[in-house]
Amino acid sequence: MRHRILVNGGALAVTIGFAFTSLTSVSLAGQSQPSATAAPTAPKPTTVPRNTWTPARTPWGHPDLRGIWDFQSVIPLERPAEFAGRDVLADQEAAEFERRALERINADRRDGGAEADLARAYNEVWYGRKPVSNKRTSLVIDPQDGRVPPLTAEGQRIAAQTRNRRGDQGTVGWTDELDSYTRCISRVMPRLPQNYNSGTQVFQTPDYVVLQYEQFDRRVIPLDGRPHIDRKIRQWNGDSRGHWEGNTLVVDTTNFSDKQEFRGIPQGNLHLIERFTRVDAKTLNYEATIDDPTIWTRRWTFLLPWQKDDGYQMFEYACHEGNYGMEGILSGGRVEEQAAEAATNVRKQ
Question: How do the domains of the chain map onto residue ranges?
Answer without folding.
Answer: 9-348
